[in-house]
Amino acid sequence: MSDVLFTNLVWIVVVAADLAIRIAALIIVPRGRKPTAAMAWLLAIFLIPFIGIILFLVIGRTKLPKKRLALQETVDGMIAERARGLDLTPRRGLWPVWFDNLVIQNERLTRIPPSDGNTAELYGDYEGSIAAMTAEIDRASTFVHVEYFIVSFDATTKDFFGAMERAVQRGVTVRLLADHLSSTRAVHSKETFAELDRIGVIWSFMLPVRPLKGEIQRPDLRNHRKLVVVDGRVAFMGSQNLIDRTYNTPKNLKRGLKWQELVTRLTGPVVASVNAVFLGDWFTETGEQILEENVPAVDQPRASGADALECQLVPSGPGYAFENNLRMFLGLIYGAERKVIITSPYFVPDEAMMYAITGACQRGLEVQLFVSEIGDQGPVFHAQRSYYGALLDVGVRIFQYPAPFILHAKHLSIDDDLAVIGSSNMDIRSFNLDLEISLLVRGRSFVDGMRAVEQHYRDIGRELTREEWEREPLSRTVFDGVARLTSALE
């Protein structure tokens, strides 16, 4: 075969393969995807066909493997069985119809019912929240459940690890779940898990990606939950990971970055729901059902009076058929009558969320957004910025938390008596790709505490005005737009 003929043959094969990829992409990619995500993937595949198709094959599937989905169904069934006939919301008749319907939706999606008689305390002090959890572990008598996206043994968490060690020495069972990729990439990861082994904690990775062991899935589907349960009587959850607030990385230390978080301490029947999420994740990762460490909601002490809170836990993630957290957020914003205040470190909303937020402004509501002045993840930060212009145009007030802090807290408050706190960002990743946990709270006392936190954000930060935004250089806004396109790759 002549060189010319061989070269022509190669070109024919390449062109045919390129055409086949494009045709196949038009057929396969749009199935079960939102139009924005489908268009982003098609754009990537058409512009860079071979690289694009490889990326699609690696990270194009937004659901967990069938085995894990089956385990999630088993967990949902266990929760539903334990909750059957349980009615711990005596004040439900006082709820607005729209809110009652929202709670029904949450329960249908997660099998977790609401409950009354709860208490919740907010911690905005990074070291203070770890100290509070450490103190509770030192009071543990039966079990401790710890679950974090990132776990690290360092100067900030050493007392927490010490409390776990003392608990083990007292005969308390301590179990810990850590997201595999995120925790193993953290500084001192080998020392962290060696320390867990040394002190006798029973631990497991969440969503491990270890192809040689047959553990294969989309690598960026992660368990982003953060929670601690002690004896089934008290729980903590929020935005904070179990690591120093600098994350100990040379890059962060050089920039002087520090994370600002918000954590809540819970008592009452809702603790059983937080514990159920842990037990479900433990079962999914280890195949072990821990029946003796399940404390039913009816056995929890219940608060009364004006400070008693009505709560419902809403887990979400790729193990569920629907975007549980997104649907709850949308329902709350559409139900709001006076005020919507959003705090999210990574604010990259989908079209539905943008319609809800801008629609709230157009209905005459006060809408505020708290974000960081600087970002720790360049592409996400620029994608976030691409929405500022549209938000400012309709009247959303944007407040920026000052450098060198990263405002990593994740919460939402509606009117005077509704709030959500948890691990979920207002971004496409948290809606579709990460396992999250959010707490819906109805109670004026809790929202009053949230309002104090929000006022601190205003006092320490500054408001971004339309005039300032219009002075942004074209180069930055162009980069913002490109980052926004890539953010839709679900």
Describe this protein's structure.
The protein has 490 residues and is of the alpha/beta class. The protein is 46% helix and 19% strand. The protein has 19 helices and 17 strands. It has helices spanning 3-28, 35-47, 49-59, 66-83, 97-110, 126-138, 158-169, 180-184, 189-199, 250-255, 270-286, 324-335, 351-362, 378-385, 388-394, 428-432, 444-460, 466-470, 474-487, and strands spanning 115-123, 143-148, 173-179, 202-206, 227-230, 234-238, 258-260, 263-267, 309-316, 339-343, 366-372, 397-401, 405-407, 411-414, 418-422, 436-442, 462-464. A 15-stranded mixed β-sheet has the order 4-3-2-5-6-8-1-9-16-15-14-10-11-12-17, with helices on both faces. The protein has a two-stranded parallel sheet with strand order 7-13. Helix 2 packs across helix 3. The chain is globular.
Percentage beta strand: 15-25%
Number of helices: 19
Strand order of the largest sheet: 4-3-2-5-6-8-1-9-16-15-14-10-11-12-17
Please provide the count of β strands.
17
Q: What is the gyration radius calculated from CA atoms? A: 23 Å
Stretches where pLDDT falls below 50 for ≥5 residues? none
Distance between the termini: 45 Å
Secondary structure: helix percent = 40-55%
Structural class: alpha/beta
